[in-house]
Amino acid sequence: xxxxxxxxxxxxxxxxxxxxxxxxxxxxxxxxxxxxxxxxxxxxxxxxxxxxxxxxxxxxxxxxxxxxxxxxxxxxxxxxxxxxxxxxxxxxxxxxxxxxxxxxxxxxxxxxxxxxxxxxxxxxxxxxxxxxxxxxxxxxxxxxxxxxxxxxxxxxxxxxxxxxxxxxxxxxxxxxxxxxxxxxxxxxxxxxxxxxxxxxxxxxxxxxxxxxxxxxxxxxxxxxxxxxxxxxxxxxxxxxxxxxxxxxxxxxxxxxxxxxxxxxxxxxxxxxxxxxxx
Length: 278
Fold this sequence. Notes:
- The chain has helices at about 25-45, 70-85, 95-105, 120-125, 145-155, 180-185, 220-230, 255-275; strands spanning about 15-20, 50, 90, 110, 130-135, 160-165, 170, 175, 195, 200-205, 210-215, 230-240, 250-255.
- It has one domain (about 5-275): TIM Barrel.
- The protein is globular and about 50 Å long.
- The two termini are about 35 Å apart.
- It is α/β, with parallel strands linked by helices.
- Strand 4 (about 110), helix 4 and strand 5 form a beta-alpha-beta unit.
- It has an 8-stranded parallel beta barrel, surrounded by 6 helices.
- Helix content is about 35%, strand content about 15%.
- The chain has 8 helices and 13 strands.
């Protein structure tokens, strides 16, 4: 199993990758996606964590797809972990879900951006002893995330189990913008910082109740993040985004992932060279 703490210091010098579908749709889909990404990341020496939500609680419309059932989805995540020997990450929304997900050997418990100030949720995640990935709220400044980090670290009694994820800042009612100054600002908290590339390109709160997106900008945002020195990237990907049951409008087509990562690795090598010569 790959090491998932102190992620800034991977042996390859590469960024960490959290990638997979938005939500568990079926076992076959998750296994197929995991197999392909494991092959790609192995070739490029990118530390990899499989990502999928076992349930989606933050839906705009009441009839939107939320999942195939908690235990069924969590069992699939555990199978991905055991089959491909990679860590897995999934969202939790309520304190009782922390213990549930941890019981299925989820390695990283992810706190959704809208819930990043929920003290009981952060404390419950910390109590499991799992790594906690906190997404920065679209309504918060980067420096304000220190309080969320402190909540987890105080309960856990250790400092090596927190990740922070930048996922854009609210820009009007229907758009987000990434302020790349936030990445080094959050890195000052001495935790790895991840850039959520695909969610940063969402166009939320659309009139029809379905979130839009700008997937054609995925490479632009990812390149900028790697150039700034982000510790990891979060990318939702799907074999057929137009058919995805959640967030298809901003996901990357799976067959485009390898070429994108190959170019990003070259940027990372250049950035690492600058660090060595400075």
